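FW: tagging you since you asked about this chain on Friday. Here's the raw sequence from the shared folder, copied in full. Didn't touch anything.
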Amino acid sequence: MSVDLNKGKFRREILRIVEGDHLFAQMKAVIDARRAEGVSDETLIAVLTELMMDMREQEREEDEEFVANGLDEIADW
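HL: got it, structure written out here
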């Protein structure tokens, strides 16, 4: 059973990491915590994809790539 995600809070958590030290371990910990709570990978992928696209629109290539790495972690691409 999938648990609803507070998308705004999740997005803010990821943005704090993106705008901070870019520590992948921190992003992975946030993703793993949401998975442990029962949030579906599909939901996490949707939010991270939206965030990545926002970064692309803002021409923030390094940040876009960082978020893409989080997607890779979930989707095993």
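FW: The chain has one domain: 7-75.
HL: agreed, and Helices lie at 7-18, 24-36, 41-57, 61-75.
FW: great, closing this out.
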